[in-house]
Design a protein that fits this description.
24% helix, 17 helices, Alpha-Beta Plaits, alpha/beta, disordered C terminus, Phosphorylase Kinase, domain 1, Transferase(Phosphotransferase), domain 1, disordered N terminus
């Protein structure tokens, strides 16, 4: 063992010398990254099997993301890794994401050298076993957006240097052993009060003490979550908290706070959850009438002065849960309290409430429980037909001999039980497998979902809605998920709502490594966000071991590195001598195999007509592969249909999620359209064009395989079908993206391509709502021999989008696409289909324009959703003008696609965005991150399992 240890140290020293040599020679590069990664993980166990040999960037090491052959991302969440971080980490100078979450056996301290990772944007170490102090050098990571160190064993004080992270969006250090005061700035010393762009202060479940400094909060801050619960804070709640008007959730419960509540809490009009229970707060309750967004209010177990039940409580019309146990309340309950329409749970036990408990006829039909134990209520007036739980134990009412009603029976804690609904007969599974809700035996990805500010959860709708939301959004992120199960619901001692989450795999009975760390990343990075009413959450993943193959041990990994290097050097000369003869032999075999395997050898014999397609990179799939990837084209995998046939969601053998467009007999598009689309998409490559992965021409099948675009069509979003509401800024970016895709076809493709079927149904939105133009079945090449400037061809396209000049003359030009695109722009303005209720959108806009393009002249035809945000419609008039130029009756009067792109870029600049920056960045800068559609987070996960490095809007 000692010899092996010396050998490892020797290798580490050699690698270190190599790094020094590279730096001296000014060539820090890909090789340096490779060596650094190997040195960093030399002592790690349970590395992915792909980490065996070759270059991490070129050999597809799982969990490694590269840009220009440099390592920019390491995402190995929930891989069961063992080991610790060493100073070798700092050599990965281009690293932007480090996510090692849910690896409990990763221990030790964070090295001071982590501060050298100057480009690091996300440091996510949730649920590991790290200990010691958080190094001061972390304040040197000036590009850091996300710092998640929660659920470790960090101790000591919070470094004041964190105050230098001016780009920090997410700060989560909860559930550690941190102690001491909260640092604030003083002179040259930074502090947390300087983090004016940070949205999240998650500090709960530590040992932090002292007072909450008044200087910690100021009016420049944009915080939405302040979670300081379960600590040891003393003193009063600073009135400066009321200056942070952006707050949505405040948890200061389970501390030792004292004194009066600040009067200006009433100014926090956006707060949904206010938890101040289990402190030593005193004085009179302030009037909270202005907090009309409150859904959960908990003031229980304090030392407030005895006071009448506040008459302002019924004014909180958004309230779902009211908890004021042992809050010094006395007198009679206001009749209107139970008329609050959303009210579900009321807990007012251990007070001195007296008189008659009475409900009006208009009481909330969502009521689930009212707990009035240990009060002074003498009578009850409740009409027939109520279906909530009322508890009056230890009230004078229950001392009467006649009062044998269920109101007076002893009750346990009013929790909530939930059983995942099963609509089939459960199979017998092996000891390690679990039956899914669809009755398949599988190895699910599991963990505990914890809501840190628990909403009302007494009915099954809370859980079924959450299940549906999880399933829908995980599918939208392109994850191979078949079903979701929730179970074991409980409220823990910290006041958190816990539930067991199981995510079941699609197609196979297990997830591969890419699927597991991608799922883990979606939760650790907070890419998944539940509906707003569920509040802030955290997810703790269980270690996943069933990857469908044996994982390598540390010894195997180490041996692969050492032995591979030795053997590689020994056989290199022999390989070089054999290379010439072998290459010649292989070339001959490849030419023969290519000829035999050509999927279009029988193109003519099938009666398809036309020449064999000229392919550039499109992969050929057999029908058997497609059956396997779609579970035999099951109904569950059907995601749409059209004139060509049905579209299915499939998972390829390498884990890639794809969309498979399968022709059906009698389809509107035939073999020529199939050949056309295969040829065109295999030769065009642009970020705003849908990528063709491959095709199937096997056993009479005409099937196209595309990249999976999770958020559906632009038409679905504009109509509300997808659930995504596009505000004006996002519509501008979608318009710009699709225009750039068309510009590429018209001006950069060689030869140029006319799409011929531009419509909102052929513009797809990816996981970040970037536009991608799709469906090239009707497209036409515009070659050099088309000297007349047009192609005479049969009229094809979609009514409402058709260029009238092309329709009348059969002469197709690129201006025909311009007309169709103009119609799409008008759809953006109106939210209507081109022809709806017998009215044509182009004529409607022209008529409504009435001499101007201001909002007032177009209100009658505008999308009502845009009218609710009229102050944000920057560049609206120019946008409508441009759309009307595009739909000019004469093609010669329409702009080119390049001119359209340039004008839209100008409009985007007027709206305060950078047209050349990542859309998520520019969008955030103008909207403050408060976008309306549910996927404004601009998910970092894409369908192929890789991680994008652009910033997204965190919750």
């Amino acid at each position: 063992m000692r010899v092996l240890g010396c050998g490892i140290m020797g290798i580490r020293n050699v690698l270190f010398l190599v790094f020094i040599c590279f730096r001296i020679n000014g060539s820090a590069s890909q090789s340096e990254d490779v060596g650094a990664l190997q040195a960093l993980t030399l002592d790690w166990e349970n590395l992915p099997p792909s980490w065996n040999s070759g270059d991490p960037c070129d050999s597809g090491w799982e969990g490694i993301t590269c840009t220009n052959s440099r390592i920019t991302g390491i995402t190995l969440a929930n891989m069961g890794l063992k080991g610790q971080l060493t100073t070798d980490l700092s050599i990965l100078s281009e690293l932007q994401i480090l996510d090692l979450s849910y690896n409990k056996a990763l221990k030790g301290s964070l090295p001071q050298s982590i501060g050298r990772l100057s480009k690091l944007r996300r440091l996510i170490l949730l649920g590991c076993g790290f200990s010691g102090k958080i190094p001061d050098s972390i304040g040197s990571l000036e590009q850091l957006v996300d710092l998640s160190l929660n659920d470790n064993k960090f101790s000591g004080e919070i470094p004041s240097s964190i105050g230098k992270l001016r780009k920090l969006y997410w700060l989560d250090i909860a559930n550690n052993q941190l102690s001491g005061d909260l640092p604030v700035s003083s002179g040259d010393t930074p502090g947390l009060d300087l983090l004016v762009n940070t949205k999240h202060f998650h500090f709960g479940m530590n040992q932090l003490s002292g007072t909450i400094p008044p200087r910690l909060f100021n009016s420049n801050m944009t915080l939405i979550h302040v979670l300081f619960d379960n600590n040891r804070f003393t003193g009063g709640i600073p009135s400066t908290l009321g200056l942070v008007r952006t707050l949505e959730a405040v948890r200061l419960d389970r501390n030792s706070l004292s004194g009066d509540l600040p009067d200006n809490l009433n100014s926090l009009t956006h707060v949904n959850e206010l938890f101040l229970s289990n402190n030593e707060l005193s004085g009179l309750l302030p009037d909270l009438t202005g907090m009309d967004s409150l859904t959960n209010l908990d003031l229980s177990n304090n030392s407030f002065d005895a006071t009448e039940v506040p008459q302002w409580l019924p004014s909180l019309q958004s309230l779902t849960t009211l908890m004021m146990e042992a809050a010094g309340l006395e007198g009679q309950l206001p009749l209107e309290l139970f008329d609050i329409p959303q009210l579900q749970n009321v807990r007012l036990k251990n007070n001195r409430i007296n008189g008659t408990f009475e409900l009006s006829s208009s009481y909330s039909r969502k009521l689930q429980s009212i707990d009035l134990q240990n009060n002074s209520i003498t009578a009850v007036t409740v009409g027939p037909g109520y279906n909530f739980t009322l508890i009056l134990e230890d009230n004078p009412y229950c001392q009467n001999a006649d009062a044998s009603s269920s109101f007076c029976k002893s009750r346990g804690d009013l929790g909530s039980s939930y059983t995942n609904p099963i609509s089939c007969i459960l199979p017998r599974c092996s000891s390690e497998q679990i039956p899914s809700p669809t009755c398949r035996c599988a190895y699910p990805f599991t963990g505990t979902l914890v809501f840190r500010a628990p909403p009302a959860f007494g009915n099954t709708h809370f859980f079924t809605n959450l299940q549906q939301d999880l399933l829908q959004k995980l599918g939208k992120f392109g994850l191979p998920v078949e079903s979701i199960s929730l179970s074991d619901v409980s409220v823990d001692q910290f006041g958190y709502l816990n539930m067991r989450l199981a995510v079941f795999p699609a197609v196979q009975d297990h997830f591969n490594r890419t699927g597991v760390f991608s799922l883990a990343f979606v939760f650790s990075n907070q890419t998944y966000k539940p509906p707003k009413e569920y509040g802030p959450y955290v997810f703790y993943a269980s270690t996943y071991t069933q990857f469908g193959g044996a994982s390598r041990s540390n010894n195997q990994s180490r041996t692969g590195i050492i032995v591979g290097a030795v053997i590689g050097g020994s056989v290199l000369l022999l390989l070089l001598l054999c290379a010439g003869g072998y290459a010649y032999h292989q070339r001959k075999r490849a030419e023969k195999a290519k000829q035999q395997a050509n999927p279009f050898v029988s193109w003519e014999s099938h009666g398809t007509g036309g020449d064999v397609p000229q392919l550039k990179g499109a992969r050929f799939f057999t029908l058997e592969e497609l059956h396997k990837s779609t579970n035999n084209f099951s109904k569950a995998n059907n995601i749409g249909s059209g004139g060509y046939g049905k579209v299915y969601r499939g998972i390829l053998a390498d884990g890639q999620i794809v969309a498979i467009k399968r022709s059906q007999q009698g389809s509107m598009q035939g073999s020529q359209e199939f050949k056309n689309e295969v040829e065109l998409l295999s030769r065009v490559h642009h970020k705003n064009l849908v990528k063709l992965v491959g095709f199937c021409f096997d056993k009479g099948e005409h099937t196209l395989i595309y990249e999976f675009i999770p958020n559906g069509t632009l038409m679905d979003s504009l109509s509300g079908k997808s659930g995504i509401q596009l505000d004006w800024l996002r519509r501008l970016m979608v318009t710009l993206g699709s225009a750039r895709g068309l510009q590429y076809l018209h001006e950069l493709a060689d030869p140029p391509i006319i799409h011929r079927d531009i419509k909102s149904n052929n513009i797809l939105l990816d996981e970040r709502l970037n536009a991608k133009v799709a469906d090239f079945g009707l497209s036409k090449l515009f070659g050099d021999d088309d000297q007349k400037g047009y192609v005479t061809t049969q009229v094809k396209g979609t009514m409402g989008y058709l260029d009238p000049e092309y329709f009348m003359s059969n002469q197709l030009t690129e201006k025909s696409d311009i007309y169709s695109f103009g119609v799409v722009m008008l759809e953006m303005v109106t939210g209507r289909r081109p022809i709806q209720d017998g009215k044509y959108i182009v004529k409607e806009i022209r008529d409504a324009k009435d001499g101007g393009t201001d909002l007032y002249s177009l209100q009658s035809v505008m999308d009502p959703f845009l009218l609710t945000n009229t102050t944000l419609l920057a560049g609206f008039e120019k946008f409508v003008d441009l759309a009307l130029q595009c739909v000019h009756d004469e093609g010669a009067m329409r702009p080119t696609m390049g001119e359209v792109v340039k004008e839209i870029e100008h409009i985007v600049q007027l709206a305060g965005m950078n047209p050349n920056a990542d859309t998520s960045l520019s969008y955030e800068s103008t909207s403050g991150g408060n976008s309306i559609h549910p996927y404004s987070d601009n998910s970092l996960f894409n369908y192929s399992g890789s991680i994008s490095l652009t910033r997204h809007d965190l919750p």
